[in-house]
Specification:
135 residues; alpha+beta; Cytidine Deaminase, domain 2; five-stranded mixed beta sheet; 4 helices; 22% strand; globular; APOBEC/CMP_deaminase_Zn-bd; Cytidine deaminase; identical protein binding; hydrolase; metal-binding
């Protein structure tokens, strides 16, 4: 995305992280998703005492976008408090992201605001997607 959209995307992911509900892991994560139409949907992780019922920030952002009628995405930024390592999406989130294509960017950040960008296809190589069900 253009630099102004990228900076907004990164900022919205940091803001979303501040809303995380993570009393068990104490590992807040925020995500911000840029749709093809230029809208941004943010999400945070939401934990539950029944651990398997929690949801990651990336999936929260995607579900919010889907619920508003968006299914085409250009980029996602993910933020955490990890100091020396870039945050990466878990396998479940990568598969949910893959549902909507492989040709979009994922900005992986460190706590200091630095980032690297990966294409989704790099994060989930040899993936299974909707088109595979049509074979």
């Amino acid at each position: 995305p253009p630099e102004e959209h990228l900076q907004l995307l990164l900022r919205r992911s940091r803001e979303a992280k501040n809303c995380a509900y993570c009393p068990y892991s104490r590992f807040p994560v925020g995500a911000a998703l840029l749709t093809a139409s230029g809208e941004i949907f943010s999400g945070c992780n939401v934990e539950n005492a029944c651990y398997s019922l929690g949801v990651c920030a990336e999936r929260t952002a995607i579900q919010k976008a889907i619920s508003e009628g968006h299914t085409s995405f250009r980029a996602m930024a993910i933020t955490s408090d990890m100091g020396d390592t870039f945050i990466v999406p878990c396998g479940a989130c990568r598969q949910v992201m893959r549902e909507f294509g492989t040709d979009w960017d994922v900005y992986l950040t460190k706590a200091d605001g630095s980032y690297i960008v990966k294409r989704l296809e790099e994060l989930l190589p040899l993936s299974f997607g909707p088109e595979d069900l049509k074979k």
